[in-house]
Automatic annotation (TrEMBL):
Transmembrane segments: none annotated. This is Methylenetetrahydrofolate reductase 1. It comes from the Eukaryota. The chain holds residues 1 to 322 of 628 of the full protein. Its cofactor is FAD. GO terms for molecular function: FAD binding; methylenetetrahydrofolate reductase [NAD(P)H] activity. GO terms for cellular component: cytosol. GO terms for biological process: methionine biosynthetic process; tetrahydrofolate interconversion. Keywords: FAD, Flavoprotein, NADP, Oxidoreductase. It comes from Maudiozyma exigua. Belongs to the methylenetetrahydrofolate reductase family. Pathway: One-carbon metabolism; tetrahydrofolate interconversion.
Length: 322
């Protein structure tokens, strides 16, 4: 199932969900049960991450394949291209075809490699090389999406870091769209104004139609929230920091509940601020369900999903990490 086909048929706001492949068999079993429960949230699509360099290739393909075959939802597999043998990429794409995975998020991965490294690998220096490769070799067999960074991509090339600059990245994002990418998923962010500025630039210079799925990570603990933002080079606006005074930072339940309200505000601001052009919100789940279920249930933009569901008892279990 192409995720664009499903997305295009939906008028109402919806969500999409990212999962990563667990390390153990029991972790996988728990996650599949969780995905089954989260299906009540009627995701427009589900994505499965790929370890850079192919480190999780087998587990990623296995999990993506099981989801594609067990649930009535389009599956998008992430695929990185640097430090990857071309055979590994072809192998992954062939298996996706067999398993009914029709959507690929084409990524560069980290770290990038230099041109003088072996031929097979240097075929892919940037994500655009993978977009072109998939389009040339597989035609419309796959619906290909790409990543974007509302605050600019943070690069370390040749040991020197390059300042984040969303305007510089825009040119390269346009190249990926011109090469055939049909959707964009963004890096996580907490500053809705920065996302809105990015969306406006994208609409003015690249496309009015290509869907952008804003990447949102629920706040499950104060430490993890700060760490995820730092690793993703996402800024946290002062008004959000002010909601977590020192005396509550260690209280995970309190932090989660404040985090739910923050995410609800961000979603509503984006939906209204884009006049409904942004209508599918992509959650970095970290394989957890509780906060997302609460956000969807309580968000004015998304709560219709639960209200309209035949099975609106979410029965969300505890959120332990496997
Ligand atoms: P690119 O589009 O290639 O861009 C990388 C940098 O190079 C940017 O600064 C860009 O401006 C610049 N650039 C692009 N083209 C050119 C050019 N022709 N000349 C000069 N500069 C250029 N990583 C994983 O390992 N596994 C995952 O599953 C994964 N999932 C992700 C999901 C999302 C939604 C996002 C946003 C990121 C994900 N990543 C993942 C991280 C990603 O691999 C890194 O951020 C990586 O550094 C950049 O990938 P990209 O596809 O955006 O690269």
């Amino acid at each position: 199932m192409s995720l664009i086909d499903v997305y295009s048929q939906r008028d109402e706001p919806s969500i999409s969900l990212e999962f990563f492949p667990p390390k153990t068999a029991s972790g996988k079993e728990n996650l599949l049960e969780r995905i089954g429960r989260m299906n009540v949230l009627d995701p427009t699509f589900v994505t499965v991450t790929w370890g850079a360099g192919g480190t999780t290739a087998e587990k990623t393909i296995d999990l993506a394949g099981i989801i594609a075959q067990s649930f009535d939802v389009p599956v998008c597999m992430h695929l990185t291209c640097t430090n990857m043998e071309i055979e590994t990429i072809d192998n992954a794409l062939e298996q996706c075809k067999e398993l009914g995975i029709r959507n690929i998020l084409a990524l560069r991965g980290d770290p990038s490699i230099r041109d003088d490294e072996n031929d097979s690998m240097s075929k892919f220096k940037y994500a655009i090389d993978l977009v072109r490769y998939i389009k040339e070799k597989y035609g419309d067999e796959f619906c290909v999406g790409v990543a974007a960074y509302p605050e600019g991509h943070y690069s370390t090339e040749d040991d020197s870091s390059i300042e984040q600059d969303p305007i510089r990245d825009l040119h390269f994002l346009k190249e990926k769209i011109d090469a055939g990418a049909e959707f964009v998923i963004t890096q996580l962010f907490y500053d809705a104004d920065k996302f809105l500025a990015f969306e406006k630039m994208f609409r003015e210079t690249i496309s009015m139609d290509v869907p952008i799925f804003p990447g949102l990570m629920p706040i499950n603990s104060y430490l993890l929230f700060n760490r995820a933002a730092r690793l993703s080079h996402a800024s946290i606006p002062q008004y959000i920091m002010d909601k977590f005074p020192p005396e509550i930072q260690a209280d995970d339940n309190m932090v989660k509940s404040i985090g739910v309200n923050i995410l609800i505000e961000i979603i509503d601001k984006i939906y209204k601020g884009t006049n409904g052009r942004i209508k599918c919100f992509h959650f970095y789940t970290l394989n957890l369900e509780k906060s997302i279920a609460e956000i969807v249930s309580e968000s004015p933009t998304l709560s219709h999903i639960v209200e309209e569901s035949d099975d609106n008892d979410l029965s969300i279990s505890s959120d332990e990490i496997d």
